Amino acid sequence: MPEPVALVDADLQLRPWRSEDLPALLANANHAAVVRGLSSRFPHPYTAEDGRAFLAGEVVPLDRWALAICRDGQACGGIAITCGSGERCGTASLGYWLGPAHWNQGLMGRVLALYVPWVMGDAGLHRLLAEVMVHNPASARVLLRHGFVEEGTARWAIRKEGVLYDLRRFAWLAGPSAAASA
């Protein structure tokens, strides 16, 4: 069994979710602005029942790569990958979120700087995909600043609350050939 993960940079820690994170999870997740850029499995309002189900691993697998983003010891967001299989072995999709009180402070850039190199090696990935709804330019900017390359736009890729949205697609490629193929 691998050792538990703890990635640390000053006041920032990425670590496995814990049941005692429930109050902080509720305080940071229960915002319409957070949900606006996430998949529909992230509900709003975000209730204690939703939080308990998430922390029990009933919503998404809380595997080795699903980590709480903590600032000064308190969970304030999350980051995870979903690994591909079959012919997509060695690839993964990245997802992340932060509570609004932590936006526009450079925190997500620090998170990506810790998480991406680690997860690429730990999960044996050669490609990491991140998709961003077109109305979330801040997320697109942080990906671009931290080594992701924009690959294009998937038009009408998702439907939320009856509205079709485009998704901007970004990728991080491992190894020295990454820059040559970008």
Question: What's the short story on this structure?
Answer:
This protein has six helices and eight strands, in the order E-E-H-H-H-E-E-E-H-E-H-E-E-H.
Principal-axes shape call: globular
Tally of extended strands?
Answer: 8
Structural class: alpha+beta
Query: Can you tell me the residue ranges where pLDDT is under 50 for at least 5 consecutive residues?
Result: 178-182
Task: Please report the first level of CATH classification, the CATH class.
Answer: Alpha Beta
CATH superfamily: Gcn5-related N-acetyltransferase (GNAT)
Task: Give the SSE order as H and E letters.
Answer: EEHHHEEEHEHEEH
- Counting DSSP H or I runs of 4 or more residues, the number of helices is 6
Distance between the termini: 36 Å
Within the largest sheet, what's the order of strands? 1-2-3-4-5-6-8-7
Helix content: 25-40%
CATH architecture: 3-Layer(aba) Sandwich
CATH topology: Aminopeptidase
Q: How much beta, percentage-wise?
A: 25-35%
Question: Average pLDDT across residues?
Answer: 91
Could you say how many structural domains there are in total? 1
Largest sheet, in brief, is: 8 strands, mixed
Description of the structure:
With 182 residues, the chain is α+β, with helices and mostly antiparallel strands. It has one domain (7-181): 3-Layer(aba) Sandwich (Aminopeptidase). 27% of the residues lie in helices and 34% in strands. It has helices at 22-29, 32-35, 48-55, 107-122, 137-145, 177-181, and strands at residues 7-9, 12-16, 67-71, 74-83, 91-98, 127-133, 149-160, 163-173. Strands 1-2-3-4-5-6-8-7 form an 8-stranded mixed β-sheet, with helices on both faces. A hairpin with a 7-residue loop joins strand 4 (74-83) and strand 5. Helix 1 crosses helix 3 (48-55). The model is unreliable at 178-182 (pLDDT under 50).
